[in-house]
Amino acid sequence: MGGDEGSQSGEYPIEGPALVKAAALASVPAERLPDLLARVQADLGSRIDEYRRRYERIAVDADCETFLVEPHHWERVAERLGLDDRERAAVVRAHEAAVERAGDGGRRAEFETALEIRSGVVIGVPDGDETSPSE
């Protein structure tokens, strides 16, 4: 968990190319990004049921769920966690890069278009917790 690159998803669901892209574009030092993402995951993970009820879930994987949220969503998260503007921007970049990657199974253009008017959130879920939203 978080010790080597292959197991970082235990602390936050953003890894590989999405993490590299976010780190390259981040407005904070790249070495701080994993800690920021872990803090955000801890907050969002505890609210997963709320996200399932309130937001459009656009992808489900074994270890994470991806949602589209309103553009000002991240301002509330940053306020809750005490993130400054640069930290918030870095977290948003990481999540949106991960949303784009979630669309790599043929839906990437669709997800990129959605991100033009909304924001994206990727929340790690414990094994076996892929509960369908109640509709």
Key words describing this protein structure:
3-stranded antiparallel β-sheet, 135 residues, 47% helix, 6 helices, disordered N terminus, alpha+beta
- Overall strand count: 3
Q: How do the SSEs run, as a string of H and E?
A: HHHEEHHHE
Shape field: globular
Distance between the termini: 34 Å
Unreliable spans? 1-10
- Name the average pLDDT: 82
Q: What class would the helix/strand composition place it in?
A: alpha+beta
Helix content: 40-55%
Instruction: Count helical runs.
Output: 6
Order of strands across the main sheet:
1-2-3
* Biggest beta sheet summary: 3 strands, antiparallel
Strand content: 5-15%
Give me the Rg, rounded.
14 Å
Task: Please characterize this protein's 3D structure.
The chain is of the alpha+beta class and 135 residues long. The chain has a domain at 19-70 and 92-124. It is built from 6 helices and 3 strands, in the order αααββαααβ. It has helices at residues 16-25, 33-45, 48-54, 73-81, 85-102, 108-114; strands at 56-60, 64-69, 119-124. Strands 1-2-3 form a 3-stranded antiparallel sheet. A hairpin with a 3-residue loop joins β1 and β2. α1 (16-25) packs antiparallel against α5 (85-102), α4 (73-81) crosses α5 (85-102) and α5 (85-102) packs antiparallel against α6. The longest helix has 18 residues, at 85-102. The radius of gyration is 14 Å and the shape is globular. Mean pLDDT is 82; it is low at 1-10.
